[in-house]
Inverse folding.
């Protein structure tokens, strides 16, 4: 499967919603980068974003909310937060 900006944004969204673990996101990003099936028009951007996600499990790099927000913006998306009572 070709990795597109939308697919990466969906993976980041799943991470932010706690539907996937940090380790799962890192593993996916590393595999996607190694497979090299990146959308041709966005290869450089996707490789950069996937490389950043691939090191998110290293303490020095981590993956803060601001990082996700920046990556999503680079992909052409905007993050919004909604708070509701439980």
């Amino acid at each position: 499967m070709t990795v597109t900006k939308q697919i990466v944004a969906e993976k980041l969204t799943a991470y932010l919603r706690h539907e996937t673990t940090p380790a799962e996101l890192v593993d996916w990003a590393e595999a996607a980068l190694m497979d090299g099936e990146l959308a041709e028009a966005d290869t450089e951007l996707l490789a950069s974003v996937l490389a950043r996600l691939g090191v998110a499990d290293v303490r020095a790099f981590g993956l803060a909310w601001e990082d996700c927000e920046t990556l999503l913006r680079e992909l052409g998306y905007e993050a919004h937060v909604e708070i509701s009572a439980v």
About this structure: Helices lie at 5-16, 22-35, 43-54, 65-74. The mean pLDDT is 92.
